[in-house]
């Protein structure tokens, strides 16, 4: 086991953090070597397995991200934009792969990541699953084949605790549709409908977000024309698909040249 790649998980107590830890504890391709939580969290100083209500895993939760990053080859990060920026700086300094599943990024965050990617491998995706990344590619191809007589709408659903909307996956799909049409998403995005909005603008890419219950993730890309519709759909029923994809990305990233990558690169798509 000691010769397997060492992976550090940030946001260890979160939904994805715990799923990543469970996935790593059962993996024969990588091992968990570090768990990071924010300063003052009640998991600090505890064995992460026991903190999760299970058996000891031999990894103590720490708030010293820099020290944790020095113990492995890759960091998997599903936290929040501000925290991810801090982790990106530390990952670049340590020279470890930084796998980012954090959503809600703004232009300033992405610009910072481009700077850090000059020193380290950064793999960022709004969704780490194979199925979703295939859907992204299909969305681009369909959008490329159809003209603006076909309206594009992206509908996504997630659990009630999700903080950002549209989801990172929905934005990936929107970017794919825009790329297929040869336009910038920022110029055609419509995600703020409320009240008397007027008729739909030709060529816009619309977004709708549903929040409720414990929905893991559902995404529909609707191409609607007069008299017919094409609907591309992905349903996620188990959060472990994201953890498995992130782990695959972390292992793939070890040995790559510094730069920005995504799951299309990881999956060879």
Q: What's the structural domain tally?
A: 2
* Largest sheet composition: 7 strands, parallel
Helix content: 25-40%
The percent range for strand residues is 15-25%
Secondary-structure-based class equals alpha/beta
Report the order of strands and helices: EHEHEHEHEHEHEHHEEEEHEH
State the fourth-level CATH superfamily of the largest domain: NAD(P)-binding Rossmann-like Domain
Rounded to the nearest angstrom, the distance between the terminal CA atoms is 31 Å
Describe the SSE topology.
Blueprint: E1 6-10, H1 15-25, E2 31-36, H2 48-51, E3 61-62, H3 65-69, E4 74-77, H4 81-94, E5 97-100, H5 107-116, E6 121-124, H6 130-145, E7 151-158, H7 168-181, H8 185-188, E8 189-190, E9 205-211, E10 217-225, E11 228-236, H9 240-253, E12 259-261, H10 263-267
Parallel strand pairs: 1-2, 1-4, 2-3, 4-5, 5-6, 6-12, 7-9, 8-9
Antiparallel strand pairs: 7-10, 10-11
Helix pairs in contact: 1-9, 4-5, 6-7
Describe the structure.
The chain is α/β, with parallel strands linked by helices. It folds into two domains: 6-124 and 239-267, NAD(P)-binding Rossmann-like Domain (Rossmann fold); 130-236, Dihydrodipicolinate Reductase, domain 2, CATH 3.30.360.10. It has ten helices and twelve strands. The chain has helices at residues 15-25, 48-51, 65-69, 81-94, 107-116, 130-145, 168-181, 185-188, 240-253, 263-267, and strands spanning 6-10, 31-36, 61-62, 74-77, 97-100, 121-124, 151-158, 189-190, 205-211, 217-225, 228-236, 259-261. The strands form two sheets. Strands 3-2-1-4-5-6-12 form a seven-stranded parallel β-sheet, sandwiched between helices. It has a five-stranded mixed β-sheet with strand order 8-9-7-10-11. Strand 1, helix 1 and strand 2 form a beta-alpha-beta unit. Helix 1 packs across helix 9.
């Amino acid at each position: 086991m000691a010769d397997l790649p060492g992976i550090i998980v940030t946001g260890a107590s979160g939904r994805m953090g715990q799923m990543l830890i469970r996935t790593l504890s059962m993996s024969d391709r990588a091992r968990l070597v570090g768990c990071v939580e924010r300063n003052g969290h009640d998991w600090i100083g505890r064995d992460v397995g026991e903190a999760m209500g299970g058996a000891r895993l031999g990894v103590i939760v720490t708030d010293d991200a820099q020290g944790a990053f020095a113990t492995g080859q890759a960091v998997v990060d599903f936290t929040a934009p501000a925290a991810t920026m801090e982790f990106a700086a530390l990952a670049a300094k340590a020279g470890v792969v930084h796998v980012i599943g954090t959503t809600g990024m703004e232009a300033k965050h992405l610009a910072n990541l481009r700077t850090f990617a000059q020193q380290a491998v950064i793999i960022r995706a709004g969704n780490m699953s194979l199925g979703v990344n295939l859907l992204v590619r299909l969305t681009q191809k369909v959008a490329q084949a159809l003209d603006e007589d076909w309206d594009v709408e992206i509908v996504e659903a997630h659990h009630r605790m999700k903080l950002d909307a549209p989801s990172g996956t929905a934005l990936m799909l929107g970017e794919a549709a825009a790329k297929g049409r040869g336009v910038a998403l920022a110029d055609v995005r419509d995600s703020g409908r409320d009240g008397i909005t007027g008729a739909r603008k030709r060529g816009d890419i619309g977004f709708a977000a549903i929040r409720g219950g414990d929905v893991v993730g559902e995404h529909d890309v609707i191409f609607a024309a007069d008299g017919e519709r094409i609907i591309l759909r992905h349903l996620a029923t188990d959060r472990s698909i994201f953890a498995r994809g992130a782990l695959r990305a972390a292992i793939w990233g070890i040995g790559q040249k510094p730069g920005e990558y995504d799951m299309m690169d990881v999956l060879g798509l």
